[in-house]
Design brief:
The complex is a heterodimer. By secondary structure, chain A is an alpha/beta fold. Chain A has one domain: P-loop containing nucleotide triphosphate hydrolases (Rossmann fold), CATH 3.40.50.300. Chain A is built from 11 helices and 5 strands; from the N terminus they run αβαβααβααβαααβαα. In chain A, strands 2-3-1-4-5 form a 5-stranded parallel beta sheet, with helices on both faces. Chain B is an alpha/beta fold. Chain B has a single domain, classed as P-loop containing nucleotide triphosphate hydrolases (Rossmann fold, 3-Layer(aba) Sandwich), CATH 3.40.50.300. Helix content of chain B is 47%, strand content 11%. In chain B, strands 2-3-1-4 form a 4-stranded parallel beta sheet, sandwiched between helices. In chain B, α3 runs antiparallel to α4. The N and C termini of chain B lie far apart (36 Å). Classes of the chains: A alpha/beta, B alpha/beta. The interface between A and B is large, with 35 and 42 residues.
Chain lengths: 256, 184
Amino acid sequence: MLHKNGFVIRDARRRARKHFTDPSRRRGLLVAFEGPDGSGKTTQRKLFKTWLRSEGYDVVTTKWNSSELIKPIIKSRKTVRALSPEEFSLLHGADFRHRVEQTILPALWDGKLVIADRFLFTGLARDVARGLDLDWVLKLYQPLLWPDMVFYFAVSPITSGKRVTATRLPNFYEAGQDVTHVEDPVESYQHFISRVIREYESLALIFNFITVDAEQSIGDQHRQIRELFLEGQRRPWSDWNLDAVADWLARTRPST
Amino acid sequence: MKRSKPRLIAVDGIDAAALVAAAKKLLGAPGRGGISHWDASGVFQELDVAGPIAGAPGPRTLLLLYAADLAFRLRWEIRPALAEGRTVVAAPYVETAVAFGRAAGVPQGWLENLFRFAPRPHETCFVPRAAKRARGGIDGFVGFGCARLGGRPAGRTPKQIVACAAKELRRRAVSAPRRPAPSR
């Protein structure tokens, strides 16, 4: 009975490749914005989205920890500070998987441009900074869906700390107080974000992120993103994403 | 004072009521230890109140949530009891989720990695579905998962997933013979 799955997956892979390599339709594109808190991702994402719309793109945005199904579960546990690093990781992984299946893949299938304000690399950087094993965390996110482009907004830990604490105190998990055990949230944030940035920098090398110097002016960053996007948008569909799409297609029947 | 030997006994099966009955029998006297039940963290209870607009979860989403609940049970119920030298019956434990995942088309390798954090139990008991409930609906994780799943994972209906999960558990029980289920 288990063999039936093999046929379903093979058929789904064939349909996925055919759909995404069809030259007669506009291919969906996935662009991820990554970086530590206070790196200006959200500002840049909004500017980029406005520009893309003016250029005629059909744009969908998805944010980290935002699924209607899982977000309330995470929120209630964060409020009472009840999450261990494993639970934190698994619940964010569930939220991500649900958004991949409910928002990202359907939009890509329909030829839309998806901007992800944080992607799975956020989970990797934060979870590894919390002491979890990179290999274990990475496999939670399988089958991996690779963005067409990942813009990494690089700032120093000091800049991140200054920007985040300028108007408010970082919350318990944002400051990493669950793992630093430092009572002062600002001091804890500084320790934790240094670890997170170290992990991001490793990921940027491994996964070939496009690094944007987020210490530059907002306008300069935006111009750079436009140019890099225009250079990279015509890249062909990557078979690396075949497993992720087939996994989704194996249980759904999107319109063609 | 002589410290007793801690024991983790996993009880796996698709029928939640049969699991609880088997767990009680295996534990014997309540003073020996305790039973760790599915959804002790309340994750699935909260999931159940989400409206249809939130979308139906896929098998991997449900399994990640199961693992999060199991991590909670390990932290608050299972490990503390074992540290006190007590017996803990985990009903269900890892095999139930693996069987559900396999039935829904999730690769074995992904499931093995997911539950890498869970310690190996000292023994595992597989519980067949109670005969009188065989034709009715089921509750527990497999029943919940099948009721909430979106689409047709691996081309199967929820009923087929239940049957396939039960078959997978039987196969695992045969391939890794462990302690038989206590008689009713």
